[in-house]
Amino acid sequence: MLTVIQVPLLKFITTDSIRFIQEINDDIERINRIIDISNDTIANEISAVNTLLVVCTIVVTVFGLGIGYYITYLKNRVSEMNRNVEIKDRTIRELANKIEETDQKIQSDLSGLYKRLQQEETNALLKRLVDEPRDISNLSDLLMARSLNSKSFDYLKDAFLKHRGLKEEVREYMFEKEQNLYRLLLFQHFLFQSILDDELRDEIVQDFDYAARCAFKCDIIKSTKDICDALSIDSAPFNKVDILTAYLKAINQSKFNNLIDIKNTLQDNIKNDLLVEAIDRCTSDKCYLIMFEVYAPEEESNDNNEVE
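Above: the chain's sequence. Below: its structure in token form.
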């Protein structure tokens, strides 16, 4: 049985325990709040760190992509530069080979190189005639002494036809003189093409006499071969007898009227019946071809002597 003194002591102990327990609970609550605040702070810091890591990752990724693109760009530039260097190196080697070949050609074929250069100069002169047809007076001597190729014929024909259109602008004497120079060039270099050309044929045929008188021996032989080639074409669109007759008359009036080379060329390259008909036509027109031993009858010779 408890005494009176024991009851107050129990009450005192109980009150103190309760207060102590309450304080412990308060402390626990404060610690919990502190822990909660710490956890929130730590969570916020972790979230901030994660955000920073994400940002850094993005920045590093973008920077890495940029670096990768730049490296790829540099690689492509280097590759392109290497290709360009290779191309230029190959071009230089090819150019060096060409220079070496050209040097060898110059050393071994000076005459051939000179002919090509001269042909280029000739084409330049002919182009000049196309632009200025009246310049034939200055250029004809140069062109007479050169060999012209088939391409030159087109230039010369164009210049000749263009000059013909200037008839009303030039004095008659000068116009005919310049036309004669053109016809002489065509006769000397391109008689074959001219006979076959409808725009040139009549012009050339009517000037046979003048051209034959002006020609040198090698020129007249070449022209004779050209006219033989033209007359040998079966489908030629002209009267062959008329052309050959006009040519034989011109030869007969020139210093080549008894040149054996012309006679042989005509006999070897023209059909016999055509040549015979043309000779007969000349004889009928009282043009006696010395080359073919056709002479004037005695009566006509006597008449000519009496007249003299």
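Residues 101 and 192 are 37 Å apart (CA to CA).
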